[in-house]
Amino acid sequence: MNFHKLLIMTFLTVLAASCGNGKTRTIGLFDIEIGNEKRRFVTSETVKVQLKNKKNLAVTSVTYFLNEKEVVTVNGNTASKIPLAKLKLGTQIIKAEITHEDGVEDEYASLTVVSSIKPKLYGYKILETYPHDMNAYTQGLEFFGDDLYESTGRYKKSSLRKVDLKTGKVLQKTELDPQYFGEGLTILNDNIYQLTWKENVGFIYDKETLEKKGQFAYASSKEGWGLCNDGTHIYKSDGSEKIWTLDGATQKEISHIEVYTNTSKIDTINELEFVEGHIYANIYQKDAIAIVDPKNGAVQGVINLKGLKDKVTQHATLDVLNGIAYKGEPNILYITGKNWDKVFKIEVIEK
Q: What number is the average pLDDT over the span 322-345?
Protein backbone atom coordinates (compact mmCIF):
# COMPACT_ATOMS: atom_id res chain seq x y z
CA MET A 1 0.00 0.00 0.00
CA ASN A 2 1.51 3.34 -1.00
CA PHE A 3 1.51 6.61 0.91
CA HIS A 4 -1.40 8.11 -1.00
CA LYS A 5 -3.59 5.08 -0.35
CA LEU A 6 -2.75 5.30 3.33
CA LEU A 7 -3.82 8.93 3.40
CA ILE A 8 -7.10 8.09 1.71
CA MET A 9 -7.76 5.21 4.09
CA THR A 10 -6.99 7.37 7.10
CA PHE A 11 -9.22 10.17 5.84
CA LEU A 12 -12.16 7.86 5.21
CA THR A 13 -11.76 6.24 8.60
CA VAL A 14 -11.90 9.47 10.55
CA LEU A 15 -14.85 10.87 8.60
CA ALA A 16 -17.18 8.79 10.76
CA ALA A 17 -19.24 11.17 12.87
CA SER A 18 -18.83 9.24 16.09
CA CYS A 19 -17.67 5.94 17.54
CA GLY A 20 -19.70 3.45 19.52
CA ASN A 21 -19.45 5.35 22.79
CA GLY A 22 -20.47 8.67 21.24
CA LYS A 23 -17.01 10.23 21.17
CA THR A 24 -16.10 12.29 18.12
CA ARG A 25 -13.41 10.95 15.79
CA THR A 26 -10.55 13.36 15.22
CA ILE A 27 -7.71 13.53 12.72
CA GLY A 28 -4.02 14.37 12.70
CA LEU A 29 -3.42 14.81 16.42
CA PHE A 30 -0.94 11.92 16.71
CA ASP A 31 1.80 10.15 14.79
CA ILE A 32 3.04 6.60 15.30
CA GLU A 33 6.76 6.68 16.08
CA ILE A 34 8.72 3.50 15.31
CA GLY A 35 11.75 2.81 17.50
CA ASN A 36 15.21 3.60 16.07
CA GLU A 37 13.45 5.37 13.18
CA LYS A 38 13.78 2.17 11.17
CA ARG A 39 11.44 1.14 8.38
CA ARG A 40 13.09 -2.17 7.45
CA PHE A 41 13.04 -5.18 9.76
CA VAL A 42 13.49 -8.95 9.73
CA THR A 43 11.02 -11.41 11.23
CA SER A 44 13.22 -12.12 14.25
CA GLU A 45 12.90 -8.51 15.41
CA THR A 46 10.34 -6.72 17.57
CA VAL A 47 9.09 -3.26 16.67
CA LYS A 48 8.87 -0.66 19.42
CA VAL A 49 6.03 1.82 18.87
CA GLN A 50 4.77 4.87 20.74
CA LEU A 51 2.61 7.85 19.87
CA LYS A 52 3.83 11.34 19.20
CA ASN A 53 1.21 13.43 21.00
CA LYS A 54 1.09 16.69 19.02
CA LYS A 55 -1.37 18.52 21.31
CA ASN A 56 -0.44 16.87 24.62
CA LEU A 57 -3.93 15.43 24.97
CA ALA A 58 -4.75 13.05 27.80
CA VAL A 59 -4.70 9.57 26.29
CA THR A 60 -6.93 6.94 27.88
CA SER A 61 -5.80 3.91 25.88
CA VAL A 62 -4.17 2.81 22.64
CA THR A 63 -4.91 -0.40 20.76
CA TYR A 64 -2.32 -1.43 18.17
CA PHE A 65 -3.15 -3.55 15.13
CA LEU A 66 -0.78 -5.20 12.67
CA ASN A 67 -2.37 -5.75 9.25
CA GLU A 68 -5.83 -5.34 10.86
CA LYS A 69 -5.12 -7.96 13.55
CA GLU A 70 -5.22 -6.66 17.12
CA VAL A 71 -1.85 -7.01 18.86
CA VAL A 72 -1.95 -5.15 22.18
CA THR A 73 -3.89 -2.55 24.17
CA VAL A 74 -2.12 -0.25 26.62
CA ASN A 75 -3.31 2.36 29.13
CA GLY A 76 -2.19 5.88 28.35
CA ASN A 77 0.55 6.55 25.83
CA THR A 78 2.78 3.69 26.92
CA ALA A 79 5.48 2.36 24.61
CA SER A 80 4.56 -1.01 23.15
CA LYS A 81 6.32 -3.84 21.34
CA ILE A 82 4.97 -5.60 18.27
CA PRO A 83 6.58 -8.97 17.38
CA LEU A 84 7.16 -9.73 13.69
CA ALA A 85 7.69 -13.49 13.99
CA LYS A 86 5.85 -15.71 11.48
CA LEU A 87 4.87 -12.77 9.28
CA LYS A 88 4.92 -12.90 5.51
CA LEU A 89 7.52 -10.56 4.06
CA GLY A 90 6.83 -7.19 2.52
CA THR A 91 4.79 -4.15 3.50
CA GLN A 92 3.14 -4.23 6.93
CA ILE A 93 0.55 -1.73 8.17
CA ILE A 94 0.44 -0.68 11.83
CA LYS A 95 -2.75 0.98 13.06
CA ALA A 96 -3.16 2.70 16.39
CA GLU A 97 -6.71 3.19 17.67
CA ILE A 98 -6.38 6.02 20.19
CA THR A 99 -8.95 6.98 22.80
CA HIS A 100 -8.24 10.42 24.26
CA GLU A 101 -9.93 13.34 26.02
CA ASP A 102 -11.37 14.82 22.80
CA GLY A 103 -12.50 11.63 21.10
CA VAL A 104 -11.06 8.73 19.12
CA GLU A 105 -8.46 8.71 16.37
CA ASP A 106 -6.94 6.08 14.09
CA GLU A 107 -3.37 6.57 12.92
CA TYR A 108 -1.33 4.47 10.50
CA ALA A 109 2.31 3.73 9.79
CA SER A 110 4.01 1.27 7.46
CA LEU A 111 7.21 -0.73 7.56
CA THR A 112 8.87 -3.43 5.46
CA VAL A 113 9.84 -6.90 6.63
CA VAL A 114 12.64 -8.58 4.65
CA SER A 115 14.12 -12.06 4.81
CA SER A 116 16.32 -12.96 7.74
CA ILE A 117 18.58 -15.16 5.59
CA LYS A 118 21.04 -14.41 2.81
CA PRO A 119 20.17 -16.42 -0.33
CA LYS A 120 22.47 -19.25 -1.35
CA LEU A 121 24.01 -18.88 -4.80
CA TYR A 122 23.81 -21.62 -7.42
CA GLY A 123 25.26 -22.21 -10.86
CA TYR A 124 24.53 -24.88 -13.44
CA LYS A 125 25.95 -27.64 -15.60
CA ILE A 126 24.38 -28.54 -18.95
CA LEU A 127 23.62 -32.27 -19.11
CA GLU A 128 21.63 -32.54 -22.34
CA THR A 129 20.25 -30.31 -25.10
CA TYR A 130 16.98 -30.84 -26.99
CA PRO A 131 15.46 -29.08 -30.01
CA HIS A 132 12.73 -26.49 -29.43
CA ASP A 133 10.43 -24.56 -31.77
CA MET A 134 12.17 -21.24 -32.45
CA ASN A 135 8.78 -19.62 -33.09
CA ALA A 136 7.45 -20.55 -29.65
CA TYR A 137 7.28 -17.46 -27.42
CA THR A 138 7.48 -19.62 -24.30
CA GLN A 139 5.40 -18.50 -21.32
CA GLY A 140 4.96 -21.69 -19.35
CA LEU A 141 6.62 -25.11 -19.34
CA GLU A 142 5.60 -28.10 -17.23
CA PHE A 143 5.89 -31.88 -17.18
CA PHE A 144 3.06 -34.23 -16.33
CA GLY A 145 4.83 -37.55 -16.01
CA ASP A 146 6.96 -37.82 -19.15
CA ASP A 147 4.70 -35.51 -21.16
CA LEU A 148 5.84 -31.91 -21.66
CA TYR A 149 3.28 -29.13 -21.98
CA GLU A 150 3.97 -25.58 -23.10
CA SER A 151 2.09 -22.29 -23.25
CA THR A 152 3.13 -19.69 -25.81
CA GLY A 153 2.33 -15.99 -26.08
CA ARG A 154 1.92 -13.08 -28.49
CA TYR A 155 -1.37 -11.79 -29.81
CA LYS A 156 -2.62 -13.89 -32.75
CA LYS A 157 0.12 -16.47 -32.04
CA SER A 158 -0.72 -17.78 -28.55
CA SER A 159 -1.22 -21.50 -28.02
CA LEU A 160 -1.32 -24.45 -25.65
CA ARG A 161 0.87 -27.37 -26.73
CA LYS A 162 1.91 -30.90 -25.90
CA VAL A 163 5.51 -31.33 -27.04
CA ASP A 164 7.91 -34.21 -27.57
CA LEU A 165 10.96 -33.24 -25.53
CA LYS A 166 13.51 -35.26 -27.49
CA THR A 167 12.46 -34.12 -30.98
CA GLY A 168 10.83 -30.76 -30.25
CA LYS A 169 7.82 -31.88 -32.31
CA VAL A 170 4.44 -30.40 -31.37
CA LEU A 171 2.17 -33.40 -30.73
CA GLN A 172 -1.04 -31.50 -29.92
CA LYS A 173 -1.91 -27.83 -30.16
CA THR A 174 -4.82 -25.56 -29.27
CA GLU A 175 -4.64 -21.99 -30.49
CA LEU A 176 -6.05 -19.11 -28.47
CA ASP A 177 -8.43 -16.61 -30.02
CA PRO A 178 -6.49 -13.65 -31.48
CA GLN A 179 -7.52 -11.21 -28.73
CA TYR A 180 -5.74 -13.27 -26.06
CA PHE A 181 -2.04 -13.18 -25.13
CA GLY A 182 -1.16 -16.56 -23.60
CA GLU A 183 0.90 -16.72 -20.41
CA GLY A 184 1.85 -19.34 -17.80
CA LEU A 185 0.37 -22.81 -17.35
CA THR A 186 0.10 -25.52 -14.72
CA ILE A 187 -1.51 -28.97 -14.53
CA LEU A 188 -3.65 -30.06 -11.57
CA ASN A 189 -6.19 -32.87 -11.24
CA ASP A 190 -6.07 -33.69 -14.96
CA ASN A 191 -6.85 -30.08 -15.88
CA ILE A 192 -4.50 -27.64 -17.58
CA TYR A 193 -4.75 -24.05 -16.37
CA GLN A 194 -3.46 -21.30 -18.64
CA LEU A 195 -3.28 -17.57 -17.97
CA THR A 196 -3.72 -14.64 -20.31
CA TRP A 197 -1.72 -11.47 -19.88
CA LYS A 198 -4.00 -8.42 -19.66
CA GLU A 199 -7.34 -10.01 -20.48
CA ASN A 200 -8.13 -10.81 -16.82
CA VAL A 201 -9.07 -14.40 -17.57
CA GLY A 202 -7.53 -17.85 -17.32
CA PHE A 203 -8.60 -20.92 -19.26
CA ILE A 204 -9.16 -24.52 -18.16
CA TYR A 205 -8.46 -27.39 -20.57
CA ASP A 206 -8.86 -31.14 -20.61
CA LYS A 207 -5.35 -32.55 -20.22
CA GLU A 208 -5.83 -35.32 -22.74
CA THR A 209 -7.62 -33.49 -25.55
CA LEU A 210 -6.45 -29.88 -24.89
CA GLU A 211 -10.07 -28.84 -25.38
CA LYS A 212 -11.19 -25.77 -23.45
CA LYS A 213 -13.70 -26.69 -20.72
CA GLY A 214 -13.95 -23.55 -18.58
CA GLN A 215 -12.39 -20.30 -17.48
CA PHE A 216 -11.76 -18.21 -14.36
CA ALA A 217 -11.36 -14.50 -13.66
CA TYR A 218 -8.61 -12.70 -11.77
CA ALA A 219 -9.44 -10.60 -8.72
CA SER A 220 -6.81 -8.47 -6.97
CA SER A 221 -3.84 -9.76 -8.95
CA LYS A 222 -2.82 -7.27 -11.62
CA GLU A 223 -2.11 -9.45 -14.64
CA GLY A 224 -1.41 -13.05 -15.65
CA TRP A 225 2.27 -14.11 -15.85
CA GLY A 226 3.31 -17.46 -14.35
CA LEU A 227 1.61 -20.50 -12.80
CA CYS A 228 2.59 -23.57 -10.78
CA ASN A 229 0.97 -25.79 -8.14
CA ASP A 230 1.83 -27.87 -5.08
CA GLY A 231 -0.81 -30.54 -5.68
CA THR A 232 -3.46 -28.61 -3.76
CA HIS A 233 -3.04 -24.90 -4.38
CA ILE A 234 -2.16 -22.96 -7.51
CA TYR A 235 0.42 -20.16 -7.37
CA LYS A 236 0.17 -17.21 -9.76
CA SER A 237 2.56 -14.36 -10.52
CA ASP A 238 1.33 -11.04 -11.90
CA GLY A 239 4.54 -9.29 -12.96
CA SER A 240 5.14 -7.64 -9.60
CA GLU A 241 6.84 -8.89 -6.42
CA LYS A 242 3.64 -10.74 -5.48
CA ILE A 243 2.84 -14.42 -5.87
CA TRP A 244 -0.82 -15.23 -5.31
CA THR A 245 -2.23 -18.43 -3.80
CA LEU A 246 -5.34 -19.69 -5.60
CA ASP A 247 -7.79 -22.33 -4.44
CA GLY A 248 -7.07 -25.39 -6.57
CA ALA A 249 -10.75 -26.22 -7.02
CA THR A 250 -12.24 -22.75 -7.60
CA GLN A 251 -9.19 -20.73 -8.77
CA LYS A 252 -10.21 -17.98 -6.34
CA GLU A 253 -7.40 -15.86 -4.91
CA ILE A 254 -6.88 -16.71 -1.24
CA SER A 255 -3.80 -14.72 -0.27
CA HIS A 256 -0.41 -13.63 -1.54
CA ILE A 257 3.23 -13.43 -0.57
CA GLU A 258 5.76 -10.74 -1.49
CA VAL A 259 9.17 -11.96 -2.65
CA TYR A 260 12.12 -10.48 -0.72
CA THR A 261 15.76 -11.23 -0.13
CA ASN A 262 17.53 -10.06 3.02
CA THR A 263 18.00 -6.64 1.42
CA SER A 264 15.28 -5.91 -1.12
CA LYS A 265 12.19 -7.09 -2.98
CA ILE A 266 12.35 -9.10 -6.20
CA ASP A 267 9.75 -7.82 -8.64
CA THR A 268 8.81 -8.79 -12.21
CA ILE A 269 8.32 -12.39 -11.10
CA ASN A 270 7.44 -14.38 -14.22
CA GLU A 271 7.40 -18.15 -14.97
CA LEU A 272 6.92 -20.42 -11.96
CA GLU A 273 7.67 -24.05 -11.12
CA PHE A 274 7.03 -25.89 -7.84
CA VAL A 275 10.09 -27.92 -6.85
CA GLU A 276 10.31 -29.95 -3.64
CA GLY A 277 8.37 -27.53 -1.45
CA HIS A 278 9.67 -24.32 -3.03
CA ILE A 279 8.55 -21.98 -5.78
CA TYR A 280 11.19 -21.52 -8.47
CA ALA A 281 10.51 -18.10 -9.96
CA ASN A 282 12.01 -16.77 -13.17
CA ILE A 283 12.88 -13.07 -12.89
CA TYR A 284 11.81 -11.31 -16.08
CA GLN A 285 14.72 -10.05 -18.20
CA LYS A 286 17.23 -11.61 -15.80
CA ASP A 287 19.24 -14.78 -16.35
CA ALA A 288 18.24 -15.95 -12.90
CA ILE A 289 15.73 -18.03 -10.98
CA ALA A 290 14.77 -17.21 -7.38
CA ILE A 291 14.06 -20.09 -4.99
CA VAL A 292 11.17 -18.83 -2.87
CA ASP A 293 9.64 -20.06 0.38
CA PRO A 294 5.88 -20.22 -0.39
CA LYS A 295 4.98 -19.61 3.25
CA ASN A 296 6.48 -16.14 3.61
CA GLY A 297 8.13 -15.06 0.32
CA ALA A 298 11.75 -15.36 1.49
CA VAL A 299 14.29 -15.93 -1.28
CA GLN A 300 16.35 -18.87 -0.08
CA GLY A 301 18.51 -19.19 -3.17
CA VAL A 302 19.28 -17.72 -6.58
CA ILE A 303 20.30 -19.78 -9.63
CA ASN A 304 22.57 -17.81 -11.97
CA LEU A 305 21.88 -18.94 -15.55
CA LYS A 306 24.09 -16.40 -17.26
CA GLY A 307 25.48 -17.67 -20.54
CA LEU A 308 22.65 -20.07 -21.34
CA LYS A 309 21.03 -17.70 -23.83
CA ASP A 310 24.34 -17.43 -25.70
CA LYS A 311 24.16 -21.15 -26.52
CA VAL A 312 21.01 -20.91 -28.66
CA THR A 313 20.79 -19.67 -32.25
CA GLN A 314 20.99 -15.88 -32.26
CA HIS A 315 18.28 -14.27 -34.38
CA ALA A 316 16.18 -11.11 -34.65
CA THR A 317 13.26 -12.25 -32.48
CA LEU A 318 15.32 -14.02 -29.80
CA ASP A 319 14.06 -13.01 -26.38
CA VAL A 320 14.67 -13.65 -22.69
CA LEU A 321 15.02 -16.82 -20.66
CA ASN A 322 11.55 -18.03 -19.63
CA GLY A 323 10.52 -21.62 -19.07
CA ILE A 324 11.23 -23.86 -16.06
CA ALA A 325 10.17 -27.51 -15.92
CA TYR A 326 10.85 -30.09 -13.20
CA LYS A 327 10.50 -33.83 -13.75
CA GLY A 328 11.20 -35.10 -10.24
CA GLU A 329 14.91 -35.63 -10.76
CA PRO A 330 16.91 -34.19 -7.84
CA ASN A 331 18.69 -30.93 -8.71
CA ILE A 332 17.67 -31.22 -12.37
CA LEU A 333 15.71 -28.58 -14.31
CA TYR A 334 14.67 -28.18 -17.93
CA ILE A 335 15.14 -24.60 -19.13
CA THR A 336 14.26 -22.69 -22.28
CA GLY A 337 13.33 -19.16 -23.34
CA LYS A 338 11.18 -17.06 -25.64
CA ASN A 339 11.95 -18.00 -29.24
CA TRP A 340 14.86 -20.23 -28.22
CA ASP A 341 15.62 -23.20 -30.47
CA LYS A 342 16.83 -25.36 -27.57
CA VAL A 343 15.67 -26.78 -24.25
CA PHE A 344 18.49 -27.41 -21.77
CA LYS A 345 18.57 -30.13 -19.16
CA ILE A 346 20.74 -28.69 -16.41
CA GLU A 347 22.07 -29.73 -13.06
CA VAL A 348 21.79 -27.03 -10.38
CA ILE A 349 25.06 -26.73 -8.44
CA GLU A 350 25.57 -24.78 -5.22
CA LYS A 351 28.50 -22.38 -5.42
A: 97
